[in-house]
Amino acid sequence: MFNLLLHICCAPDLTAPFERLKEDYNISAFFYNPNIFLEEYNKRLSEFINLNKKLNLKFKIGRYDSLGWHKSIKGLEKEKEGGKRCLACFKFRLEKTAQTAKENKFDFFSTVLTISPHKDAEIINAIGENLAKEYQIDFLKFDFKKQEGFKRSLALSKEYQLYRQNFCGCIYSLRR
Ligand code: SF4
Prior knowledge:
With 176 residues, the protein is of the alpha/beta class.
């Protein structure tokens, strides 16, 4: 079975993609989200760890490089959600996922970000494919919101009694 490093933004968004991929890939979940402000980050990280234990899933936690993330979106703070700040944010998180997958000899990397109805899968997949060329490691393209994926994540989050936030994660999305 192929080894997949799967970037995870929060526990609810891991649920349905895990269900969809678990028979075909040996998954390691990678929590890398320095975009999230600290109080919220700690909540999501703790929920992520609890869910991984329930699913018996291997996981990695990336460094909370909040300074690096802020540098990567400098000048874009006032962009609206879905705009240039989000593109830089996707790239920042996917780049670390690609680097980590390469260093640890995974066959593929990917992300669950596409499950959100607010996120454009084409944009996220294009960023992943560019990074795949740069880091010489294959990227798996998905749009997890398709085939009722988002709806399924809501049902599974309820079943697992997960904390589900109603904003994206950075301080700018909170002030929206
Ligand atoms: S709104 Fe979400 S994707 Fe956009 S910059 Fe903030 S955390 Fe990143």
